[in-house]
Each structure stands twice: as structure tokens, then as C-alpha cells.
Amino acid sequence: MTDHVASTVRELMPGVIANLEELIAIPSIAFPGYPAEPVHQMAARTLELIREAGIPDAHLADVPHGYPPIYGEVRGPEGSPTVVLYAHYDVQPAPESQGWTSDPWTPTRKDDGRIYGRGAADDKSGLVSLLGTLRAFEGDFPCTLRIIVEGMEETESNLEEFVEAHPELFECDLFVIADMGNLRVGEPVMTTALRGDVSCTVTVRTLDHPLHSGVYGGPAPDAMMALARLLSTLHDDAGDVAVEGVSGAPWPGSDMTEEDFRAGADLLPGVSLTGTGTIADRLWSKPSINAIGIDTTSIAESSNVILPHASAKISMRIVPGSDPEAELDALVHHLETHAPWGAQVEVQRIKAAHPFTVPTEGPGYAAARAAMEEAFGATASEAGSGGSIPLLQTLQHASPAAEFVLWGPEDVALSRIHASDESVDPEEIERMIVAQVLLLTRLAR
Ligand SMILES: [Zn+2]
Questions:
Q1: 196-248+287-353, what's its fold?
Q2: Helix intervals (H) in 53-175
């Protein structure tokens, strides 16, 4: 079976890559402040391609606000399983300040064989792998398929709301989320866990109003310095999270090499990694804390004045299996009790998004794993993902018994999603299409 599928998919690849290049050229940035026309153009073209690929009833879904997701369904044989296939058609912005070496909206094949451009991997590669998978069946689908391609994944998504309003559209046996990737090209990985994400803002106050730094500096505490000291208590000297009550554990699956991590992260020369344990532990099964924004007097507006207040936004990634409200409670409590000099602290809770653990006991996972190993000709390992997909929780509510497969052509080592010079390996797209075709075929047996 694999040989037949592999040759069918190989013949489809020129068309799939042509689609990818066409879609990269459409700057479908759904963020506020960017032109809407290309996003609508992208939605219309994607819809057309999905219809042509064998889902003639696909349509733009009705949503109260924002860009519409594309939804479509095609029935498989009586009694066959139902599979929801997910991808997204919007992309991150690609500002010049990121330092692209080729135009982000001109698909560019470089000497390494990869195709460069914004969205080349995230998630237009997932989208065209979905198209290739549909085409391989030539309208004769072994399962009932429900297609959902959302248009606001990278910004304030409207899809969770849509799923909550229409849970019946998402009832299924298996969700296939094609918006992930292997750690390295050609080495199959099953993603089994995602961290959650909690955040808050913390404001530190020491004075009623700004004071002259010469007249009062010394005994009068500076709010910015107090905030810096408070933030420094969130980690120990090794860089591990030091918040009491926040959980972590070793990662049981495969590891990522420091070399791959550094290549993907572009750490500056001489900068060391933070935290202890394997890279996998630190990325997938231990918490992390970052200050992601700060409000205080800017340098341009500064004068010889002691700052009376300063605020920071804190984001904490939490581990699979943990309770986001409890983890956020622990973070808030830590911030409220560790400021120096009796400074006043006020914490505002912003978000508590669940982590996600992929069930690995069911037939869907087994079929996906076998399909992946057949398509890649290698044993699959289990990896986590440091990112969070709150949508998964919502999908699980809509279809509580369903299984999940999280994969795609976005390899972690080289794809540079959300950064400059994003790229994808076309052969990885081909292998993922083969894997998806094999999965649907196996599942139907
Ligand atoms: Zn994505």
C-alpha cells in the first residue's frame, strides 16, 4: 500500500508546491491594522482549492466578527470513522525589522532545497498538505471528513467561539491538527503534550509621585529597581523557575540536541542556556517564566527623577497535567510576597490557558503512529511542544471521546516560524501527505 500511496503523492507534488508558492505570495495577516483585502483573497482562494480537492460543499462559515473560517464536510462509507482536519490560512506579520534575507511574500527556493517566505511553514505547509491528502483520494474518501481552516489563528482567534456555538460540526473520532512539525526533517515525531500559558501584570509602587533623584535618591526606594528585584526572584541562580507550588517533571520521551535548539533560537554568541535538565525537560515538561512587556518612563522621557511605579507583564508556560488557575494563583502569590523594601504590589490576572495532554491509548493514535513510521521509514519518537493551543481544549469539549493527532511539515530545527526567513522542506510536505493518506486509510479498516 505504501508504494502505491507514495507514487500517487509524488505525482501530486508539483501541484501542491505550486499552490504553496501561490499562497505564500498572499500576505494574509489577520492582525488588526493590516489590510483586509489579502486575507479575504486568501480565504476565497483556499476555499476554491478545497472545493476542487473533493469537498464541493465547503463554504465560508458565518461568524459574528473577524475573518471567516472555512468549513466543509464529505461523507465516507456508512459506518466509517469521522475525522476533522485542521489548518489555518492566516500568517504572522513579517516586518522588515526582522531582517529577512529574501522578500517574505515572494516564495524563494534556496540552495538548501527549502522554500522561504512568510507562512511557508506556519501554516500554509499544513494547508497544502491537507489539499494533497484530499487529492490523493480522488473523491473516494475512506472516512467522513470535516475540514476546518481558520483565518485568525495568529491573532484573536474567533474559532473557539465558533466551535462553542456549533459543537455538532466538530463531533468526530479523531482531530488531525496539521500545524506542527517534527524536531528535524525526516525524523518522525508524535507530539503528545503541550504546555499551557498563564499571564498577569504586576505593578510595583514605592512613592506617591516622582521625586528629584538628587534630593531624595539614596533613602527613597525606586519602583523600577524594586520591580527588577522582584522579577529576579522568579528564577533561581541556574535559571529554573523558583515559584513555590508551580510544578514540573522530567520529559519521558525523546530529547532535542542543544545544537538544534541553538540553531532554531539564534542565541547570540556567548549567551548560555537557562535552567537545568535536558532541553526537552525545559521546553515541554518544566515551567518557564518570561517578562514579555514593561511599562515605565521611557528613556526619551526620562529626567533626574525617581520612578514612583513600574509594571511588567509576566507570562508563565505551565506543564501538561497542571491546573492553570492553581499555577496562576501560585505565581500571583509569589509576586505579592517577594517585593523588596515594603513596596506596594498589585497583580492583575490576565489569562489561564490549559496545557494539553494527547491521549495515546486509542486506535487513532496507533494508526497515526504507524502511518508516520511507514511514511518516513523510521521509528517515531514522542515529543512535546512548548507552545500552547487553547483551541484543543475547546475541541475536546465539543467531542469528548475524540482522539488528537498533532503534526505537520513545520520542522522545529529549521522552519523559524514567526521569525525572519521562515521556510519549509518540500520533501517533508510530501512525507506528511503520505502519512495523512495512510492514516485515513488505516483508520477506515
Ligand atoms: Zn500555526
A1: Alpha-Beta Plaits (3.30.70)
A2: 124-136, 159-165
Contact 432, 440 (CB under 8 A): no
CATH class of 2-194+355-444: alpha beta
Ligand 1 centroid, distance to 22 Cα (angstroms): 18
Residues near 378 by beta carbon (within 8 Å), at least 6 away in sequence: 186, 187, 188
Rounded to the nearest whole angstrom, what is the distance from the C-alpha of residue 170 to the centroid of ligand 1?
A: 19
The pTM (predicted TM-score) of the whole model is 0.88
**What single string gives the DSSP state of each residue in 290-329?**
EEEEEES--STT--SEE-SEEEEEEEEEE-TT--HHHHHH
Distance 126 CA to ligand 1 centre (A): 9
pLDDT tens digits for the chain (445 residues)? 678 999 999 999 999 999 999 999 999 999 999 999 999 999 999 999 999 999 999 999 999 999 999 999 999 999 999 999 999 999 999 998 999 999 999 999 999 999 999 999 999 999 999 999 999 999 999 999 999 999 999 998 999 999 999 999 999 999 999 999 998 999 999 999 999 999 999 999 999 999 999 999 999 999 999 999 999 999 999 999 999 999 899 998 888 889 888 877 888 989 999 999 999 999 999 999 999 999 999 999 999 999 999 999 999 999 999 999 999 999 999 999 999 999 999 999 999 988 999 999 999 999 999 999 999 999 999 998 877 788 999 999 999 999 999 999 999 889 999 999 999 999 999 999 999 999 999 999 8
Distance 415 CA to ligand 1 centre (A): 12
- What whole-number distance in Å separates Cα of residue 102 and Cα of residue 408? 24
- How remote is the C-alpha of 68 from its chain's centroid? 20
Catalytic annotation, residues:
90, 153
Q: Do domains 2-194+355-444 and 196-248+287-353 have the same CATH topology?
A: no
d(CA 145, CA 334): 47
- β-pairing, 381-385 vs 189-194, is parallel
DSSP annotation of 67:
S
Please state the length of the chain.
Answer: 445
How far, in Å, is the centroid of ligand 1 from the Cα of 101? 22
Q: For the chain, what are the domain ranges?
A: 2-194+355-444, 196-248+287-353
Q: For residue 331, what is its C-alpha cell? A: 505565581
